Amino acid sequence: MTDRIDESVDYLKSKGFGEPEVGIILGTGLGKLLDDVEVEVEASYNHIPYFPTATVEFHKGKLIFGKLEGKKVVVMQGRFHLYEGYSLYDVTYPVRVMKRLGIKRLLVSNASGSINLDYKKGELMMIEDHINLLGGSPLAFHGVERLGERFVDMSEPYDPEMNDLFIEAAKKLNIKLHTGVYASVLGPQLETKAEYRYLKIIGADAVGMSTVPEVIVANHLHIPVSAISVITDEGDPDNLDKVDIQEILAMAAKAEPNMVKLFKELLKKI
């Protein structure tokens, strides 16, 4: 296990990956941040030993090292999901590799559907807390204690300091930023009307198919983490439209510039 992580890291270092300060995971349809990165080197996932390969057509498959707002960053252009057939260990393996490379903080983005109907398509939500509905944990495997303490406190999974900086940045840039609870589900099917009602009852403000595993592992590794959801569709069970993935991608692209601005402003402050 640790040997595999070492082999992945050794490969990346041999390709010119330095010691990043911040790791960034880009979600569905959210790749424009890379336009602002001074790219030094990149590696395809399928060339990195033991890395999964992104199978979703709108997720790229590269790990990129460079500079953004004066910070050395390592960026995942495309992430992995349980619905692709991967295990929770596979999905979170890149976080462990980024930690071994040297990251001190982790920023995560995703596309999600709103459960709180005050949150509209094209808006952003900073995740304050989450609900894990994936049916498992990325820490539930034999030997996890060799990578960190087994029983991880999750009373405050999202870093308060970075969350406060996101809120300050949103005010400064006049960007509407909601705060709320993100529910992570397996997918890939979207939710039924009854499921949307259930998610509202249990306290979710938005729902998606990612992020929570990476956040759990970040906490396991004591990496401060913060996450932003781009609201791409609305889960109103009384007026539920049929899913159009192209519309979801278009909405992600529409909202993405504001997310990029927030990420860049945060990087200036940390």
Automatic annotation (TrEMBL):
By its UniProt entry, which InterPro entries does this protein fall under? Nucleoside_phosphorylase_d, Nucleoside_phosphorylase_sf, Pur_Nuc_Pase_Ino/Guo-sp, Purine_phosphorylase, Purine_phosphorylase-2_CS
Where does the Nucleoside phosphorylase domain start and stop, copy by copy?
A: 22-268
What pathway does this protein act in?
A: Purine metabolism; purine nucleoside salvage
For this protein, what is the EC number?
2.4.2.1
Instruction: Quote the Gene3D superfamilies the UniProt record gives.
Output: Nucleoside phosphorylase domain (3.40.50.1580)
One family from Pfam that matches here is PNP_UDP_1
| Single GO term (MF) | purine-nucleoside phosphorylase activity
**Keywords carried by this UniProt record:** Glycosyltransferase, Transferase
UniProt-listed GO biological process terms: nucleoside metabolic process
**PANTHER family in UniProt:** METHYLTHIOADENOSINE/PURINE NUCLEOSIDE PHOSPHORYLASE, PURINE NUCLEOSIDE PHOSPHORYLASE-RELATED
| Record's subunit section | Homotrimer.
What is the protein name given in its UniProt record? Purine nucleoside phosphorylase
Q: Which organism is it from?
A: Christiangramia fulva
The uppermost taxa in this organism's lineage are: Bacteria, Pseudomonadati, Bacteroidota, Flavobacteriia, Flavobacteriales
